[in-house]
Specification:
Number of strands: 17
Number of helices: 14
Strand content: 15-25%
Radius of gyration: 25 Å
Shape: globular
Distance between the termini: 49 Å
Structural class: alpha/beta
Strand order of the largest sheet: 3-4-5-6-7-8-9-11
Helix content: 40-55%
Largest sheet: 8 strands, parallel, barrel
Amino acid sequence: MSNKDLVDYNLNDEPTSRHKTHTVKVGQVKIGGNNPIVVQSMALGVQINPGNIKSSAKQYAKEIIELAHASSELVRIALSSEEVAKAIPYIVEEVNKGGFDSKMLVGCGQYELDRLIQDYPHNIKMLGKIRINPGNIGFGDKRDEKFERVIEYAIKHDIPIRIGVNWGSLDKYLLQKLMDENSLSSNPKPSDVVLRKALVMSALSSAQKAEEIGLSADKIIISCKVSRVQDLISVYTALAKSSNYALHLGLTEAGMGNKGVINTTAGLTYLLQNGIGDTIRASLTQRPGESRISEVIACQEILQSIGLRYFNPQVSSCPGCGRTNSDRFRVLTEEVNDYIKIRMPAWKKQNPGVKRMSIAVMGCIVNGPGESKHANLGISLPGYGEKPVSAVYKDGKYFKTLQGSNIFREFKTIIDNYVKEHFT
């Protein structure tokens, strides 16, 4: 193979096609098909006070609205008690008051789900979607009975269902059956392989059962949650090859801080780049007092970094080195990022296309001018002490040089003018 052939072979510019799935409508949100990848999150929630459910519901709704403002398109709540079921009408009321469609709410049902839909049918039907875990719906003969009851309820009230299998609560009867069969095989597989097979079989067989009961395929979303990246990739690759159900991606216990973000990014990016996945969540462990919007931001950054969706202007900046030996470059980068956050609420309403804008903030002349020319707007400091002189580039061409102590203030004006000129 010649060098030219090698370059052509490695630089294939054809994007990977999306795995074809059914489109599932949840309120105003469309999941699957050719629709954009949907970002969702889960509210941590509050302890519902039985003596003052309405007040507790307001607190619960406050967190949901915060996540919605951060652009979480679906927000899951745990259907963990009678008190939560009773609070749903009040939560819905507050979410609507906050300017959001309450059908963005997803009820996450576990052991209690069957009982709650029977005791509070009018409240549960106010939700946009229900998540059901086949491993926790019941045991023995009661499992099928409860599963059927939930599916029939969803059909009656036209509610989509996410069949969410989790390796921490997998159907123990199915897993044991597969483990026994594997142990008797002449060529037994490692236990991890059997576990992954059980996850996929549980999800697909439950979905098939739901269809047999009468739930249409465009009302079904599937997820198979694990906490190891390679397991995630294997399981979802198998699901995509085996069905056309809409798929929800996410590690079930990603971890805290950088570990959680990196784990989530590693798994989701591979799958999304290969056309697999219709809705995603970053299940991050928040530090005490930390807002859950960090998981929404993580999902947005993943999607934007690989060009699947755009949420905010992209700010590129270099890491700095011995050529940028003062804080001036880092301060300028922080100022630009903070300014975009401040302006975005207004820009989203008046200049919606601004989310595709790119800005480069560079520290020295080595890569600064070149990198700035690739952005809509670029600003490059000279390095070596970072004197108060900065070259500005607009749409790949030199625009002007800013000097003195007001560089950031002048650059803000350039940003605002560019937004007005190009994103009206």
